[in-house]
Automatic annotation (TrEMBL):
Keywords: Amino-acid transport, Glycoprotein, Ion transport, Membrane, Metal-binding, Sodium, Sodium transport, Symport, Transmembrane, Transmembrane helix, Transport. One of its GO terms (molecular function) is metal ion binding. InterPro entries: Na/ntran_symport, SNS_sf. This is Transporter. GO terms for biological process: amino acid import across plasma membrane. CDD domains: SLC6sbd. Unusual broad substrate spectrum amino acid:sodium cotransporter that promotes absorption of the D isomers of essential amino acids. Neutral amino acids are the preferred substrates, especially methionine and phenylalanine. Pfam families: SNF.
């Protein structure tokens, strides 16, 4: 098939057409697409382009309505709408709630962190979650193809999100490997972290600490005590080194096997895409709550637990003026809900077009917040008990922070169970592993969908195997003696920094380049319901402003990264590796921007920019649906033209009144 397109006699690689702009002429098996009678070699017909004639700015009423071919792409769909909801719960309610939220809260003042977190969740988290759901469901495409459909140059946002999701997936599986190690160690009547091992005495002496059993009450002063659970994690599980100036070391063979097992399980969950992961989502989403509630009940009965829980809700109002606390709230919100990673867009792209995503967004974001508060109350109750035994304040318990908070505090609580502690340990670490599988499967599926959309002839299991093997090899650096320091570094640059940057690009592209009114019209057409004032105000004003202000303030006060219990600065080479993650994301954005500007270089400057950032390629899937959508938009546009007043007054009227 030969396809040609030129505009004003000039080849245009980024040419895009609107419904009704094409004069199609068929000759045998060849199709020639022309614009104003001039060939355009780069034109690509998308499914959903409709044969219509154009009169002025309206679609001809006599144009034949295309047949219903909305399923022409044969894109896989969830077996049931509930599978999508359960998959979103399994994805969003995960290690981000159990591991990252309590640690982030502890590092940012405990209760002082809750206020900015809940505010950010309300005005950024939930609106952004709903926006990404709507984008995926409307376009029926993974994140890279979705942004490319919105405007070809915007594919850099999808690739930037892909870099972030791969970074998180590689270290996420490391946490699951550690979980498997603890799970295997729990099949014994005497849990190995409950007693001090004499082999740890030398290390304890080096850091001027005395080991105390997780089951005993300590008479040591606060400056000298260290829990056996903490020493077990650092010396036995991680075999951690305190200084990485000479490198991070070689992978530990035990954790390597656990890492391999974790990826094998994830591979089998995602082997058939949503057809297999959807069925597993019921168990992945519901089982963890049984164990979490049991642990909360146990934690609340421990001595000193009340002090820890009070510290969790106690508020230092001065912390609210610290930009780093607000930045931490935003990044925790992104990490916990999985917004900005492309996985929500990917999951919702497999929905039926009219699925009720407003309900699902409300359920998932509410449940995610509840889970974070549940795990926070549990772990701070345990911290209160540890502080009571060590004669210290809850804020001073566990010197190293990081992933250790979940792998030290929770095991410490389990050690205090008087009845079958090994059974609770097995249940807890199995629950933690299940939570990790739900989130990791979503992150891997995000990469799988990008590849599947680009190469639709590839089999799903081959793509899943390829991504699993690649991420396993990358993840080997996290199971080295210095691996946890690399995890913190990659989490900072790949799991938070780069995601924050591309979320700002995403919000500006959708709400300002494409337009808030256009986006709301799309949502109304898709769901049959008008977008309420809460979402319009958050999308149009609050969310973009807060994101940009918090990010600029954070850059202004960017902290120096440190690692380990001694607070050492990262070696220059390793720190450069972290910055390179962000650099790759920014450079690929510059590349795509330069590429499309160069492709449109024949045009005058103003038109070149307009052509580069044109959103005329945006449309839902299916010829009939595209026709109906354009007709719907035409009717809405005709009504909006009747509005009077200045440009700013019309925009504000739409934000607050919806018309």
């Amino acid at each position: 098939m030969e396809e040609n397109n030129k505009t004003n006699g000039v080849d245009n690689p980024s040419f895009s057409t609107e419904l009704g702009d094409i004069d199609n002429t068929k000759n045998g098996n060849g199709i020639s697409e022309k614009t104003n009678g001039i060939n355009n070699p780069s034109y690509q017909t998308e499914l959903g382009d409709v044969e219509n004639s154009k009169k002025g700015n309206s679609i001809s009423e006599k144009a034949e309505i295309p047949p219903d071919d909305d399923n022409a792409e044969n894109r896989a769909q969830w077996g049931h709408g509930l599978e999508f909801l359960m998959s979103c719960i399994a994805m969003s309610v995960g290690l981000g709630n159990i591991w990252r939220f309590p640690f982030t809260a502890k590092e940012n003042g405990g209760g002082a962190f809750l206020i900015p977190y809940i505010i950010v969740l309300t005005v950024i988290g939930r609106p952004l979650y709903y926006m990404e759901m709507a984008l995926g469901q409307f376009s029926s495409r993974g994140n890279v193809k979705m942004y490319e459909r919105l405007s070809p140059v915007l594919k850099f946002i999808g690739f930037g999100q892909l870099i972030g999701s791969v970074c998180v997936a590689t270290y996420y599986c490391c946490l699951m490997a550690i979980t498997l190690f603890y799970l295997a160690s729990s099949f014994t009547s005497e849990l190995p972290w409950t007693q001090c091992d004499p082999a740890w005495n030398e290390y304890a002496a080096e850091i001027n600490r005395t080991c105390i059993s997780a089951r005993e009450v300590s008479n040591e002063s606060g400056a000298e005590a260290i829990s056996s659970s903490e020493l077990y994690f650092r010396r036995e599980v991680l075999r951690q080194k305190d200084n990485i100036d000479d490198g991070i070391g070689l992978p530990d063979w035990r954790l390597t096997l656990c890492l391999l097992a974790s990826w094998l399980v994830t591979f089998f969950v995602s082997i058939r895409g949503v057809k297999s992961s959807g069925k597993a989502s019921y168990f992945l989403a519901l089982f963890p709550y049984v164990v979490m509630i049991t642990l909360l009940i146990r934690a609340s009965t421990l001595e000193g637990a009340g002090d820890g829980m009070y510290y969790f809700i106690e508020t230092d109002w001065n912390k609210l003026s610290d930009a780093s606390v607000w930045y931490a709230a935003v990044t925790q919100c992104f990490f916990s809900l999985n917004v900005g990673f492309g996985s929500i867009i990917m999951f919702s792209s497999f929905n039926a077009f009219s699925h009720n995503i407003n309900r699902d967004a409300l359920v998932v974001t509410t449940l995610d917040t509840f889970t974070s508060l549940l795990s926070g109350s549990t772990i701070f109750g345990i911290l209160g008990n540890l502080a009571y035994e060590m004669n210290r304040h809850p804020s001073e318990v566990i010197s190293g922070g990081g992933t250790g908070l979940a792998f030290i505090s929770y095991p410490d609580a389990i050690a205090k169970f008087n009845v079958v502690p090994w059974l609770f340990a097995i249940l807890f670490f199995f629950m933690l592993f299940v939570l990790g599988i739900g989130s990791l499967a979503a992150l891997q599926s995000c990469a799988n969908t990008v590849i599947q959309d680009a190469f639709p002839n590839f089999k799903a299991w081959m793509i899943s195997a390829g991504t699993a093997i690649s991420m396993f090899l990358i993840g080997l650096m996290y199971v080295t003696p210095g691996g946890q320091y690399m995890l913190d570094l990659v989490d900072h640059f790949g799991g938070t920094f780069i995601i924050f940057v591309f979320v700002i690009f995403e919000v500006c592209a959708v709400l300002y380049l494409y337009g808030l009114e256009n986006f709301c019209t799309d949502v109304e057409f898709m769901t049959g319901k008008k977008v309420n004032v809460y979402f319009r105000v958050c999308w149009g004003i609050i969310m973009p402003v807060l994101l940009i202000v918090i990010f600029i303030y954070f850059l202004y006060s960017l902290p120096t990264l440190t690692y380990g219990i001694h607070g050492l600065e990262y070696p220059t080479g390793i720190l450069a590796f972290g910055w390179s993650i962000l650099g790759i994301g920014i450079l690929q954005a510059i590349f795509w921007l330069s590429y499309y500007l160069w492709a449109n270089r024949e045009y005058p400057c103003g038109k070149m920019i307009r052509k580069t950032f044109s959103t005329k390629t945006w449309a839902p899937t299916g010829a009939r649906r595209t026709y109906e959508w354009r007709k719907y938009k035409e009717d809405v546009s005709a009504e909006s033209k009747l509005q009077t007043g200045s440009w700013i007054s019309r925009k504000l009227r739409f934000v607050f009144r919806g018309h």
